[in-house]
Design goal:
Blueprint: H1 2-14, E1 20-23, E2 37-41, H2 50-62, E3 66-70, H3 79-85, E4 87-88
Parallel strand pairs: 2-3
Antiparallel strand pairs: 1-2, 1-4
């Protein structure tokens, strides 16, 4: 998990992300080689289509599928659970 965090920080900072966390299997430490990486971000207001570039760059760097979700886009039924179990990246 620490490797994922270390690899994502420079990319997230490049795109102006100041708040990000892992959630899902990596946050619960029950991931395997086929697990995707679930990342919550607070995107800057002017992010626009850079969100797609960020997503692709993370997938390329991690060589894994990435589920990139903004804090405002969390499923309302899972919100409490996700926020309680998140692991801070930045």
């Amino acid at each position: 998990m620490q490797s994922i965090i270390d690899q994502t920080i420079p990319i997230l900072q490049k795109y102006g992300i100041t708040k990000a966390s892992l959630f899902g299997s990596y946050a619960k430490n029950n991931f395997d080689q086929n697990s995707d990486v679930d990342i919550l971000i607070q995107p800057p207001k002017n992010m626009g289509l850079s969100f797609i570039n960020l997503h692709l760059e993370l997938e390329n760097k991690l060589n894994k599928k990435v589920d990139l979700v903004s804090y405002n886009g969390i499923n309302k039924h899972l919100r409490s659970y996700i926020l309680e179990n998140q692991i801070k990246i930045i």
